Amino acid sequence: MNDAKKIRVAVIGLGKLGILHTAVVNMVPQAELVAMADVNKQLAKYIEQAGLKAPFYSDTDKMLAEVGPDAVVICTPAFANLSVVRACLARGTDIFIEKPLAHTLADAKTMAGLAAARPMVNATGYLFAHMNLFKTAKRLIDEGLVGPLARVRSAVYTSEVFSKKKGWYYDAEKSGGGAVINIASHLLYILYWFFGPARSVFARTRRIYSDVEDAATALLEFPNDLQGTLDVSWSVPGYRLPFTEIHVEGDNGTIEITNDYIKLYLYKAHRGYPKEWTTIHKIDLGSKSRFEIGAEGLYEEDQDFIERCLDRGRPAVTWADGLEVQRMVEAIYRSAERKILVATGDLA
Amino acid sequence: MTVQLEKLILGANAFEGVSYIARSQSAHYLEYFAKEDNVLAVIEAAYNVGVRGLTCSNTANVMGALVKFPKIKELKVYPVIPNAYEYAMEASEKGILGAVLSKAKGFSMYQKFKFGLRALTKIKSVLTKDVMDLLLELLHFEMASFEKLNLGGVILHGQLTDMALTSHNPDILAIFQEVIRDSFGIEPLLATHNFGVLLPQLMEWKIKIPIMTALNSKGFMMKPSKEECEQLVRESGYQILAKKVLAGGRLTPEEAFPYLLDKKVDGVVVGIGSVPEAYHTFTVAKKILKV
């Protein structure tokens, strides 16, 4: 890696995640924040006046033409992603895009196709891939600690929606859906990362407060006949932050993975782990991140993207990975709508 | 400027449902401390062992418990502002600016004039008046809940401190410092989750202010590294208020407090999840730290 060169980065879309990415990019040593863009001119006024050195643009095309960044971090609402991506690709930039890739599978396919046709660095924001606890869990599963896998149960819950809410996030035409695409997509990424893409999906969704689904339940079939379930709701009391749990059952025991710990139960001692219970706490695993803001993994995620821009390597999570997640999301929606089993291969 | 810090301070993480150990513990805290009498019982237990300080945000359960606490005048409260969790929850619907502006609407023109003009005469900032007004309104909105309490200092939430750090602009932290001193007559402190990055920057900016930071033998939340944080604690000369001393619950008090013996810290904040835990933790802390 050439340590002297810095990647000139622009952040497009300054909502909650855009502001966090702006903060992180500003702290990655190999990056230089060169511009920020958002269509909200009121937001522009405050950001511009807050003394940040990078210029603010309310017109992305103008920013790309005038600043010419090496790379962009796109955090626009999902429905706008494809058009912003096209504009950036026309300028030859490397691109990180927040998850989901797009509000529709069609847009996500187009984006993945565009990326595959170019020698560009493309990454997307499934940040569990950068968390030490989940990387450790994947390693333990891959090493066969619990033996050949039979079943996986998974869920993600948060206390966020208890009345009808406003904004693009709660409008299916703009966000692509509700709790599944916005919350469970992270869990679907983990399942894809650990076990491969689901082959078939049977699902039900439920609207409680919103015009989009507030909850969903799905049966999933993964490669090697691994059967799985997924449950998601953003309307459950008592979850001040999103909480993810995955229970994997194999021939030699079980592994429970949550945001806080990995808990093993082994029928036979294996690879240095004793028979029966072992708990591995996140705190004990530590973190290699040299900075942390907003969420664990966010700094590593942006650092990974910037470093790959420099060495032209493959980021931890690419748009091809994002497309697989989007396919599973679409399968859940299609199954729930038509009340049928959906083979993800039919969505290829 | 130095702050007279209490040596032992009760933290409020558990009262807000925060646990780094397990979701089940977080759920228990949320349910148990939803009753302000349970918060009050922990505050009383800590007081009975000699603790005279409390850090907290303006959550309803804690504020309700403080109203009922008969020894309230003997307790130094260190507000942590803003209540970042509340803003974060609103931000997904209204956007960050929307969440902030909706809070700032609660002030009268008189308040805006009184606070804004006075601070502006003191602060030479590159920030424009719109941003300045917004910051002032937010600070006063957040401080309103605490105005009748005996305040020992005001702590800027770690998320805000660290956001300000990433802007590479000293003005936001300088304004916080000036406004807290000027408008409230209280000393400000900064909380951070990135102590080893923040402190060198503060030194470069010539901002001398007490810092609340994680300090524990496991290196939990000590960024960029445990070793770099320890060196800065040892050599910087800044006032340090240590938090996360039990490493999010992975250390017992007996394991945790000896680590602090050779560290230059002015106070220690410990979050507590029950009455027995309050008696045990602070008794051990007093014995080991000799305070």
Walk me through what this model shows.
The complex is a heterodimer of chains A (348) and B (291). Chain A is α/β, with parallel strands linked by helices and 348 residues long. Chain A has 2 domains: 7-127 and 295-316, NAD(P)-binding Rossmann-like Domain (Rossmann fold, 3-Layer(aba) Sandwich); 129-290 and 325-347, Dihydrodipicolinate Reductase, domain 2. Helix content of chain A is 34%, strand content 25%. Chain A has 11 helices and 15 strands. In chain A, strands 14-13-12-11-7-10-9-8-15 form a 9-stranded mixed β-sheet. Chain A has a 6-stranded parallel β-sheet with strand order 3-2-1-4-5-6, sandwiched between helices. The radius of gyration of chain A is 20 Å and the shape is globular. In chain A, 52% of the residues are buried. The model of chain A has no long low-confidence stretch (mean pLDDT 94). With 291 residues, chain B is of the alpha/beta class. Chain B is built from 12 helices and 8 strands. In chain B, β6 (211-214), α10 (226-235) and β7 (240-243) form a beta-alpha-beta unit. In chain B, α2 runs parallel beside α12 (275-289) and α5 (109-122) crosses α6 (129-143). Chain B starts with 7 loop residues before the first strand and ends with a helix.
What is the tally of helical segments of chain B?
Answer: 12
Task: Please report the total strand number of chain B as a whole number.
Answer: 8
Based on CA inertia axes, which overall geometry of chain B fits?
A: globular
Largest interface comes to: A-B, 44 and 52 residues
User: How many distinct folded domains of chain A?
Assistant: 2
Mean pLDDT level of chain B: 87
Regions of chain B with pLDDT < 50 over 5+ consecutive residues? Answer: 112-126
| Class of secondary structure makeup of chain A | alpha/beta
Q: Can you tell me the residue ranges of chain A where pLDDT is under 50 for at least 5 consecutive residues? A: none
CATH topology tier name of the largest domain in chain A: Dihydrodipicolinate Reductase, domain 2
The major beta sheet of chain A can be summarized as: 9 strands, mixed
Spatial ordering of strands, largest sheet of chain A: 14-13-12-11-7-10-9-8-15
CA(first)-CA(last) distance of chain B: 23 Å
The CATH topology of chain B: TIM Barrel
> What's the level 1 CATH class of chain B?
Alpha Beta
Order of helices and strands of chain B: EHHEHEHHHEHHEHEHEHEH
